Amino acid sequence: MLRDYYSTPIMLNEKQMKDFITYDSNKKQKRWKKTVSLSACLFMLATMCFAFQDSYSWAGTVGNVVCCFCVLIPVWYFNSYNNGVKTQIQKMKLDPPREVYSIRLSESANGIMFYYPNEKNYAGRYSWKNIDGVWKTKTAAYLYVTKHQALIIPNTIPDYDDVWAFIKKQLDPLQIHEEKYL
């Protein structure tokens, strides 16, 4: 049954945080595109060098060097990304799972609030009209209160389906994004 507000603690574990970071970086922010674009441009440059190797003696060598960078740049990026995610999750000390924050959602104009454990005052308060959007995956809903800050609402919380329906009721249909999964 839908209510006019929901208040719940958010417990997160390492896997849920890793899922969020991966989703945010790869699907929402699409940070990998710059690396792939750079690698593609370098590959085209290497191809041009190989095309001119009969005319210029150095073109084949330059093409080989550029080809190496085509491979090394994405490898370096994804290795750095994975190490950064691992370090970030370790700093959060989510093993065993712990309460990271509590959320309170209401129908009022500034109806999105979150609190850190053991604090009386809210840590953040947001307006429904300024929300970037909500993305629902198989394991959680990510309520982006700004373009780069999201509240993670895992599907393991009590009344998850009711909370999802409540959020959908508050937002414009263009702000709601549901992943289609099997």
Write a concise keyword list for the protein shown above.
four-stranded antiparallel β-sheet; alpha+beta; four-stranded mixed β-sheet; 23% strand; 182 residues; 8 strands
The share of residues in extended strands comes to: 15-25%
Alpha-carbon distance between the termini?
Answer: 26 Å
Strand order of the largest sheet: 1-2-3-4
Order of helices and strands: EHHHEEEEEEHE
Q: Taking all residues together, what is the mean pLDDT?
A: 89
The computed structural class is alpha+beta
Tell how many strands the DSSP assignment holds.
8
- Helical residues, percent: 40-55%
- Count of helix runs: 4
Shape: elongated
Main beta sheet, described?
Answer: 4 strands, antiparallel
> If you compute it from the alpha carbons, what radius of gyration comes out, rounded to the nearest whole angstrom?
22 Å
Protein architecture, described:
It is a single chain. α1 runs antiparallel to α3 (59-92) and α2 (32-51) packs antiparallel against α3 (59-92). The mean pLDDT is 89. The protein is of the alpha+beta class and 182 residues long. The longest helix is centred in the middle third of the chain and has 34 residues, at 59-92. A 4-stranded antiparallel beta sheet has the order 1-2-3-4. Strands 7-6-5-8 form a 4-stranded mixed beta sheet, covered by helices on one side. β2 and β3 (112-115) form a beta hairpin. Helices cover 44% and strands 23% of the residues. It has 4 helices and 8 strands; from the N terminus they run βαααββββββαβ. The chain has helices at residues 14-28, 32-51, 59-92, 160-170; strands spanning 5-12, 98-106, 112-115, 124-126, 133-136, 140-144, 150-154, 176-178.
